[in-house]
Amino acid sequence: MRIQLIGILLMTGLLPLYAGMQMMKSLHWSRSYSNRLESVIDLGNALAGQIAQNGYLQQQLQPEVTAQLQALAGLMKGRIVLVNSSLVVVKDTTERQVGKTLISEEPIRAMRGEMTTYYNEAEGMTEVVLPILVGASAENSGQAIGVIILESSLEDIIAEHKSFVDSMVVLMIGAAMVLLVVALVISGAMTRPLRTLSERIGHVTESYDGTQIIESGGYLEAEQIGDAVGHMMERVAATEKSRQEFVSNVSHELKTPLTAIKVLSDSLVLEPDVPIEMYREFITDINAEIDREAKIVNDLLSLVKLDKTSGEMNIAEISINELLEIILKRLKPLALKRGIEMVFESYRTVLAEVDEVKISLVFTNLIENAIKYNRDGGKVMVSLNADHKYFYVKIEDTGIGIPEEEQGRVFERFYRVDKARSRETGGTGLGLSIAKSAVQMHKGSIKVQSIPGVGSIFTVRIPLSFVLTVQ
Fold first, then answer.
1. Angle at the Cα of 268 (from 263 to 272), degrees rounded to 5?
2. DSSP-derived 3-state class of residue 328
3. Which of 38, 136, 253, 328 is within CB 3.0–4.6 Å of 142 for a Cys-Cys bond?
4. 194, 222 in Cβ contact below 8 A?
5. Gap between the Cα atoms of 209 and 221, Å rounded
6. pTM over 0.70, yes/no
7. 248-268: per-residue pLDDT in tens?
8. Beta strand 341-346 with 379-386: parallel, antiparallel or unpaired?
9. Which whole number is the average pLDDT over 410-435?
């Protein structure tokens, strides 16, 4: 991350600097060249005016005029060429084209009164071709009687421009070094909290007990990351604790019936003359413990099946009204034994896409619990309602209730509010866990409200249409 920050900071600083350097480089050259071209044009206009006024093209050039032209050409480090109206070269300070006729475009255009300029980058020269006019005034452009060609070397301004560019390069290198130092400092300051956070997370994870606080000592975002990691580790610790408790509870629950069976069977083996009544009593107790063991194993198998993906759901549209009536009818004998009244209230006909086996497991466990943990002569009320998206099943009892501090744990595996009562009723502590898992597989929710000594209300909300989530 620090390397990326350094790169970003350098690019952010150097790109505008480079663009500015290129702009200044272009501006410097343009200004230098324009000044030189303007001075050459001024010189050409002055010479053209002098030549037109003195009629040098119509007579033999005087030595002093030739010397003046040679001197000016020397100052420009170039040459001056005079061409008459017939486009014949009458003077060339380099003597290369004297007497020759020029038929190139520039002299012809100059004879028409136009001035042309040309930059020869390869030779580092600029050329100005302009007409020599007579009779020129504010109202009249005059008549061209010849052409003057001036070539000037740009060696000095090229050298000056190169020196300017070199200075800019040195400046940019210096600026890059400064930016690098600044980027190192800023990136170090920005990543220091993250490095500190990483180190502290590493130290904490080696011996995390769920109580350590991860502090970054940096900016807000790092503190938020620290808080998020802390919450995540708390959840991991809670999950690990829950797993350990689950393994311990499973071991205990499975061992208890086996221990009872072992004690009862040993008693029968060690007593040679056991009365038939005691023998039958012990066998009956052994059979009950075997049933209890089988129920625990079956509930564990149900949880394992429910922990699998929803891809194994057997979804079909069924009548929830009819399903609840069947479940209530099946559990009615259990309620009659204790004089518990069961009431079913349906507000509307509900058809929903559910897995019938799993959703039956949910309502069976909840209604059975409402009966088991109820008082004798109590009441169990089941209601069904729906809206455009969900159906709701509310199961209310007049039983022992659940303390507020334990309501958040009733869906944990093997968790019992009243352990003695649970064992008396044959509960395994897995029923509500099974119900919650099945509800979640249907993308639904289950909630509990309870007042100790008054009763409990379990509310289940399930979507009417099942949508398979693609992983």
1. 145
2. helix
3. 136
4. yes
5. 25
6. no
7. 656 656 666 777 777 778 777
8. parallel
9. 63
